[in-house]
């Protein structure tokens, strides 16, 4: 049987009780041949990065001292969960790590220009220590866990702080992990870290442990990649706005990507690309409620083509409308317009056009004061701040007629602008005033997910839940 990757994020290993939950989850999943990938304990990566800054500023002593609180957190987890001898061994590991980090801080303080590779070397202790501690805790729970140095598996280029995997990763990962799996061991490795061909430590960029899990899963042709975090999968809406928001049982990769833009607590599409390429299902689960709901993310053909899956939103949006008679029948206008945004390095999200005007939404409007005079060369400009983008997401939008009509008739008293049926055709997106966003979302959630008498959307949702 192909292995299952179980990746645990920082909050899933933040303290001794979180480690206990992880041990219970891995124990329950032994039959699925787990490979465990783990982040640094919550907050430690930030602390390690901040320590490097202190060293760059010249204070190596303060840099190392600033880590003592988090190093002690590791020790107290070990003392609570490990027997005396393995606890002593781990305390020694911590002492050695502190000494090594101390040396690195000193080098950085003396030669700040050397810091990029040394920073990765230091930051990697977060995942290294956590994976060693977790392997010990799993062994304490009668599991045949083996710590594996992830740098032996994940081979990368030398873009320190944001390294990318190279093709040697797959054979290296198989060579390291398959023998363990064949002898029924459970490999435990840190996410986020790798090494170059010369053996220099690298990191993949913040949040990179999910990416590691997907890369390792692809190399081993995993049957499933599980991302254990602190939320119950992906929800139908923001639970702070809709108290009846619930877990979406199945999503397609594309729906998940659309949701990610809205900052829904869901994987970044780039990080699961290796899984998407090999059509490996990715499951988002809650390590604090392991028996609770989870979301399975699969290829489109396997995702039930449910009408509406989620209502996502993003506040703080600015819209810009440029109107000009020059647009009529002319070419080159749109190019000129986008060049302005390009020059000012401002990303445009939603775009709608009519014969004589173009509306655009931007999420980071900090360059607007400099950008406006350039836009005014092209036509009359109108800016509206404090807008919210609302996006209704679901594969079924591709082929279910009448959804737009239902949505807009439900909110006919709310001023809606910039309606766009996403180019991806799995979303229907529009803008409302921020002050009316919560009410809009609540009402749409009701028609799409809560109203049992109503038409297709709700019914299909219920049918799917029964299957899942
Ligand atoms: N520990 C790393 C970070 O905080 C990687 C991860 O958690 O995915 O960015
Ligand atoms: Mg993390």
Provide a quick synopsis of the model.
By secondary structure, the chain is an alpha/beta fold. The protein has helices at 16-28, 44-56, 60-65, 68-81, 84-110, 115-140, 169-182, 209-219, 253-261, 273-277, 333-343, 368-376, 403-410, 437-450, 456-467, and strands at residues 4-8, 34-38, 145-147, 186-190, 193-195, 201-203, 224-229, 250-252, 282-286, 295-298, 310-323, 348-353, 357-362, 380-393, 417-421, 427-433. The site of magnesium ion has 5 residues, from loops.
Distance between the termini: 23 Å
Estimated helix fraction: 40-55%
Molecular shape = globular
What average pLDDT do the residues reach?
92
Beta fraction: 15-25%
Our count of helices gives: 15
Helix/strand structural class? alpha/beta
Q: Give the C-alpha Rg.
A: 25 Å
As residue ranges, the low-confidence spans are 454-468
What small molecules are bound in this structure? aspartic acid, magnesium ion
Q: Strand count, sense and closure of the main sheet?
A: 8 strands, mixed
How do the strands line up in the largest sheet? 3-4-2-1-7-9-10-8
Total DSSP E strands: 16
SSE layout and pairings?
Blueprint: E1 4-8, H1 16-28, E2 34-38, H2 44-56, H3 60-65, H4 68-81, H5 84-110, H6 115-140, E3 145-147, H7 169-182, E4 186-190, E5 193-195, E6 201-203, H8 209-219, E7 224-229, E8 250-252, H9 253-261, H10 273-277, E9 282-286, E10 295-298, E11 310-323, H11 333-343, E12 348-353, E13 357-362, H12 368-376, E14 380-393, H13 403-410, E15 417-421, E16 427-433, H14 437-450, H15 456-467
Describe the overall structure.
By secondary structure, this protein is of the alpha/beta class. Helix content is 41%, strand content 20%. The chain contains 15 helices and 16 strands. An eight-stranded mixed β-sheet has the order 3-4-2-1-7-9-10-8, with helices on both faces. The chain has a six-stranded antiparallel β-sheet with strand order 12-13-11-14-16-15. Strands 5-6 form a two-stranded antiparallel sheet. The longest helix is centred in the first third of the chain and has 27 residues, at 84-110. It is globular and about 75 Å long. The relative contact order is 0.10. Mean pLDDT is 92; it is low at 454-468. It binds aspartic acid and magnesium ion (MG). The site of magnesium ion has 5 residues, from loops.
């Amino acid at each position: 049987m192909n292995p299952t990757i179980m990746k645990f994020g920082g909050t899933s290993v933040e303290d001794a009780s979180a480690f206990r939950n992880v041990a219970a989850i891995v124990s329950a999943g032994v039959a699925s041949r787990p490979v465990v990938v783990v982040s640094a304990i919550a907050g430690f990566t930030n602390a390690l990065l901040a320590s490097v800054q202190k060293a760059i500023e010249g204070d190596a002593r303060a840099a190392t001292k600033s880590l003592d609180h988090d190093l002690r957190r590791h020790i107290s987890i070990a003392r609570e969960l490990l027997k005396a001898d393995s606890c002593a061994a781990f305390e020694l590991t911590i002492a050695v790590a502190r000494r090594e980090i101390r040396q690195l801080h000193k080098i950085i303080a003396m030669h700040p220009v050397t810091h990029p590779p040394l920073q990765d070397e230091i930051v990697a202790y977060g995942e290294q220590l956590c994976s060693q501690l977790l392997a010990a805790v799993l062994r304490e729970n009668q599991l045949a866990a083996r710590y594996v140095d992830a740098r032996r598996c994940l081979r990368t280029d030398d873009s320190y702080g944001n390294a990318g995997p190279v093709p040697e990763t797959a054979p290296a990962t198989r060579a390291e992990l398959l023998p363990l799996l064949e002898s029924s061991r459970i490999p435990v490795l840190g996410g986020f870290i790798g090494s170059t061909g010369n053996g220099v430590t690298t990191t993949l960029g913040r949040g990179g442990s999910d990416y590691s899990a997907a890369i390792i899963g692809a190399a081993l042709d995993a049957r499933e990649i599980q991302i254990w975090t602190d939320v119950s999968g992906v929800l139908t809406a923001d639970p702070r706005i809709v108290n009846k928001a619930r877990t979406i049982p199945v999503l397609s990769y594309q729906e998940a990507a659309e949701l990610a833009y809205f900052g829904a607590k869901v994987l970044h599409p780039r990080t699961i690309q290796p899984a998407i390429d090999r059509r490996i299902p990715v499951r988002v689960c809650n390590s604090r409620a392991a028996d609770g709901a989870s979301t399975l993310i699969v290829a489109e053909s396997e995702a039930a083509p449910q009408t509406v899956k989620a209502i996502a939103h993003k506040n703080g949006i600015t819209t810009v409308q440029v109107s000009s008679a020059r647009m009529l029948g002319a070419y080159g206008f749109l190019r000129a317009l986008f060049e302005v945004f390009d020059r000012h390095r401002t990303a445009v999200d939603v775009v709608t056009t009519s014969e004589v005007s173009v509306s655009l939404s931007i999420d980071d409007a900090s360059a607007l004061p400099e950008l406006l005079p350039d836009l005014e060369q092209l036509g009359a400009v109108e800016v509206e701040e404090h807008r919210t983008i609302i996006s209704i997401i679901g594969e079924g939008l591709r082929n279910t007629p009448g959804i737009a009509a239902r949505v807009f008739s439900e909110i006919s008293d709310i001023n809606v602008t910039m309606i766009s049926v996403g180019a991806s055709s799995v979303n229907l997106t529009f803008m409302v005033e921020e002050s009316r966003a919560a009410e809009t979302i609540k009402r749409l959630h009701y028609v799409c997910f809560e109203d049992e008498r109503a038409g297709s959307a709700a019914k299909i949702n219920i049918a799917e839940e029964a299957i899942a």
